[in-house]
Sequence to fold (132 residues):
Amino acid sequence: MSDAFIERQLDDYIWVIKESYKSSEMQELLQNYIKGSPPEYREKIKNQELSTYGMKTQDGVVIKGNGEEAKPEDLQKIEDNVDKRMLTESPALREQNLQLEGTYLFPDKKELKKKAYEELKKTKKLAKDGIN
Fold:
């Protein structure tokens, strides 16, 4: 098999995998996992976001810089920012070999290609040696 043919097979394989990851159920599952993992990291990011907006947590209540309790819309903005950051910064992305492309989480193309190539080499070896 030529290198161009193998490369085309790998690209087709990656396309099929990515298409399967586009389902709303898969994305919901992956994104919820990444947004919450690891919990300590999420807490760290949340504290950074609170600090950015001059807020802090005191006795389990988020307090603004002026001493007032944060409004629900303030808290939602913080949570949205934390979610966005988790989808690009979470250590779970590397652990699970995932990356964000647009609004989708997909397997890391480089890692996927590497694994697919290893499988292809095994298949070629089996075909060459004969399957027993």
Q: What stands out?
A: The helical segments are 3-21, 24-36, 39-52, 72-89, 91-95, 109-129. Residues 109-129 form the longest helix (21 residues). DSSP finds six helices and four strands in the chain.
